[in-house]
């Protein structure tokens, strides 16, 4: 009974350590990411901390299990033909190893829900709003708070020979309102560590909405992550994250009548996408169709 009580106390102590470490802020460096990809948004950092805490919790449980296995191998190795003292029907021990896994799962579930709520949280007044329209097989990005020379909001739309560039500011809360014109698509930027299925018929502002705060400038490829038809693989776009001042200058240039390419060049950015290019096969198909039309 005494040995069973000690094991029960040891299990309880290990469980307390797992739950405590799962809720701690984890350092952000290559080692502590445990293979988790490096994101560029505040939300991706919350997910990375959940992953780090979960891995540490799993390591603690694994080390405890292996320690008990080796302890049993050494302490209960065969010394004679006489059976050692049996511990069947040890009620405290059985209660401990029945409750402990449930509490571990409950703890991981709790922190997962907390992180999920943080990632999906929507602010009352985001700094920027972007309308994303998906269609077979490309993207349109609309800046609804702007007005071009024709009075309509500034937008960027991709073609079979041109990758659409979505320009975003860093260090601002950006709301994406995503819609589909036909079938289910999926808005995915790998560096966001987040994707959202775009289900047609869901009203913008209700289901197809999420927010991010980008922390690092750069060019990042975006993709459709839902098989949406024949040319699904060609449905790429680029996120161009720039400083807040450059973003404002970009919108001013667009409102003055410049296109996406010219406005990007005007703020010192490459005019065309740099993270991905249209697939050559698709360009050839498009050119063949044009030749057939002309001929």
From TrEMBL:
Domain Cytochrome oxidase subunit II copper A binding: 125-253
Membrane topology: Multi-pass membrane protein
Pfam families associated with the record: COX2 (PF00116)
Reactions this protein catalyses: 4 Fe(II)-[cytochrome c] + O2 + 8 H(+)(in) = 4 Fe(III)-[cytochrome c] + 2 H2O + 4 H(+)(out)
UniProt keyword list: Copper, Electron transport, Membrane, Metal-binding, Respiratory chain, Translocase, Transmembrane, Transmembrane helix, Transport
Entries under SUPFAM superfamilies matching the protein: Cupredoxins, Cytochrome c oxidase subunit II-like, transmembrane region
Predominant place of localization: membrane
Transmembrane segments: 50-74, 95-114
Entry EC number(s): 7.1.1.9
Record has DNA-binding as a keyword: no
Cellular compartments annotated: Membrane
Function recorded in the entry: Subunits I and II form the functional core of the enzyme complex. Electrons originating in cytochrome c are transferred via heme a and Cu(A) to the binuclear center formed by heme a3 and Cu(B).
Family note: Belongs to the cytochrome c oxidase subunit 2 family.
Name this protein carries in UniProt: cytochrome-c oxidase
Gene: coxB
């Amino acid at each position: 009974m005494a040995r069973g009580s000690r094991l029960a106390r040891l299990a309880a102590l290990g469980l307390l350590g797992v739950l405590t470490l799962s809720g701690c802020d984890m350092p952000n460096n290559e080692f502590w990411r445990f293979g988790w990809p490096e994101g560029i948004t505040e939300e991706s950092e919350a997910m990375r901390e959940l992953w780090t805490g979960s891995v540490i919790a799993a390591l603690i449980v694994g080390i405890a299990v292996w320690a008990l296995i080796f302890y049993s191998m050494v302490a209960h190795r065969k010394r004679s033909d006489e059976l050692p003292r049996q511990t069947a029907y040890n009620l405290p021990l059985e209660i401990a190893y029945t409750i402990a896994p449930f509490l571990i799962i409950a703890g991981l579930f709790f922190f997962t829900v907390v992180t999920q709520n943080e990632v999906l949280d929507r602010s009352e007044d985001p700094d920027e709003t972007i309308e994303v329209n998906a269609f077979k097989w490309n993207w349109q990005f609309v800046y609804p708070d702007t007005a071009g020379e024709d009075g309509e909001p500034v937008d960027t739309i991709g073609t079979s020979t041109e990758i659409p560039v979505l320009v975003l500011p860093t260090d601002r809360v950006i709301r994406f309102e995503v819609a589909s014109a036909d079938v289910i698509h999926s808005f995915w930027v790998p560096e966001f560590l987040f994707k959202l299925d775009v289900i047609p018929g869901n009203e913008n502002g209700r289901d197809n909405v999420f927010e991010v705060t980008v922390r690092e400038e750069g060019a990042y490829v975006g993709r459709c992550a839902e098989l949406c038809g024949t040319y699904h693989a060609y449905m790429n776009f680029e996120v161009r994250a720039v400083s807040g001042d450059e973003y404002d200058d970009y919108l001013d240039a667009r409102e003055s009548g410049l296109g996406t390419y010219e406005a990007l060049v005007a703020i010192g950015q490459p005019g065309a996408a740099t993270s991905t290019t249209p697939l050559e096969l698709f360009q050839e198909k498009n050119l063949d169709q044009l030749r057939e039309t002309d001929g």
